[in-house]
Amino acid sequence: MIMLNFYTILLQKIKPGFHYSCWFSAMLVTSVLNSAHANTLNIGPFEHDPVPGGIAIVNLGIATDTTPPTVTLGVRPVAVMENNKQWYAIVGVSLSTKAGKHQLAVHSGDTKMIIDFDIEDKQYEEQRIVIKDKRKVNPAPYDMERINKENVRIKEVKAYRYKELLSDKFQMPLEGILTSPFGLRRFFNDQPRRPHGGIDIAGDNGTPVYAPATGLVVETGDYFFNGNCIFLEHGLGLQSFYAHLSKIHVKPGDKVNAGDLIGEVGATGRVTGPHLHWSVGLNGTWVDPNLLLED
Ligand SMILES: [Zn+2]
Predict the structure, then answer these.
(1) Picking from 7-11, 38-42, 222-226, which range would have the lowest pLDDT averaged per residue?
(2) CB count in 10 Å sphere of residue 295
(3) For the segment 32-75, what is each residue's pLDDT rounded down to a tens digit?
(4) Which domains does the chain have, with CATH numbers?
(5) d(CA 237, ligand 1 centre) in Å
(6) DSSP character for 164?
(7) What pTM, to 2 d.p., does this model score?
(8) Span from the CA of 64 to the centroid of ligand 1 (angstroms)
């Protein structure tokens, strides 16, 4: 159960003598009224599921101004959307987030406030994988040099934002059997590694991979773990990522629409066989792709 605890909102004066705007006073009233509906709230393509690896849709109050407030989670900017004359933060919740109370910093004009939101617990299954290429589990020092450079680039790509939302609900990028769900706690050759930040869809080498929604190609390349891969930005920091491809059919700067061919399934990078690894990102963190998919 999400409980948007608006009673714990802290209003901070940045300028001495500054008066709280109507925006905030109105917010306190409307938020209490709206919090009862928070559980079923979906906005745009986003589905509310406030768990690790999910999306928390957090009411920020009445939208009396046309300029949305600026919202950050830690240092990361968070998407803000208007719905029924209210502003909402659309927060991607990382898989490593602990259940409990978390805080958003909200700036509007000269005022800053902190809004609490709750994350519920969710347990994900464990998965053990045997990788024959031991270098892909314990990379050599010269591999680490390449991996570190790639990580710097991935961080830049994940920080990229297009100013407006381009996409609606996502379509599947590939029709195939789901072989590995989102969020699995993974062990490669019995060594713990990061949880599975996407879903794996089985497909033969060369099976077409399609854009799930309108987006911009931010990056393509051959990465150590991901193999040939593509990053798409769908606006406001909503991103999607395609790995282990045999072929890439787009280049950075291209605009793609839902259903456009972007690549082909392959077995490049750290894999046990050909498949598509598909991830969806929001504010630089991986979230469950099912929360964006059409029913
Ligand atoms: Zn995967």
Answers:
(1) 7-11
(2) 5
(3) 334 434 446 799 999 999 999 999 999 998 777 788 999 999 99
(4) 6-119 (2.60.40.1590), 126-292 (2.70.70.10)
(5) 21
(6) S
(7) 0.84
(8) 43
